[in-house]
Amino acid sequence: MTKVKRYITVFIYIISVLSIKAQEGEKAYRFLDLPTSTRANALGGTNVSVIENDISLVFQNPAALGKEMNMNANVSFMSYIADIKVGSAIFGKSIRDMNAFAIGVSYLDYGDFKETTENNEELGGFSAKDIVVNGMYSHMLSNRLRGGVTAKFISSSYADYTSTAIGFDVGLSYYNEDREFSAGLVLKNIGSQLSSYNDKRIGLPWDVNVGLSKKLRNIPVRFSLTGVYLTQWDFSRIDEANGIDSSDDGFVKTLFKHTIIGVDIIPSQNFWIAVGFNPKVHYDLKLQEGNKFGGFNAGAGIKIQKFSVGFSFAKYHPSATSYHFTLGVDISKF
């Protein structure tokens, strides 16, 4: 059996085992699902198949990491909801032609809060934060197939309550340059808590994502289709916990909620525009009286010499629009 076949066999085995054990119970560290790439955010929030020299996409799929990202760095910032802020930073380095590694960090800051008694007497203040430190590694399995893994150390601190966890992402990325077709498969957030907020341990928000991207011949337009929430079919139990009634969803609507659709226009290697649609977010916000644009994302980016800038916006809550900015730099060009 070749090395590629062994890798894929192990990958399928992991999916099978985890799918059997998957449960719809309570999950911690939901911030791990938030996008840290403006490009992925513009394409609907999740994309594991797009192939670009954009190191922020490695947060989505560790197999997106390649030698072309040698000495590349990226920082991002997103105003999420109210005073809640999301940020990330990543740096990559190639190891010869077959391997690459990256280190990254992302965080969610809920802001500062007043601590009071039940009689509204102020006792002081406290903060709440989530942070994850990532180590990524990728290896070329063939001319068109690459594998990657991300190891995560996760820490949460909410006033006097703290929690830590270890998690992993495992990914595959296929790219046929001649056909301008790419595909990706990622097992996300495989792991467990090391310490919990109380005596009850909660699982990580593990998921399986699969995606396809195809650029049209002679037209600078690329379509992407991403499958999400593939560890479960029915959303009713989770939606009920969030005050959403999806008990009447039929087969077609439920299937639609498991997809994300993205389109990007790439007139040159130095400029892109993208739009995306996330049906699950759209229906959830519609039921919560969010505006009709919920679930629709958009963004654009430009590259000037050694620098790249990206911007995207999306609506993840009925009362707020999230704005996302990234700045990338190719340090090797200095």
TrEMBL record:
It comes from the Bacteria. NCBIfam families: PorV_fam, T9SS_PorQ. This is Type IX secretion system protein PorQ. It comes from Dysgonomonas macrotermitis.
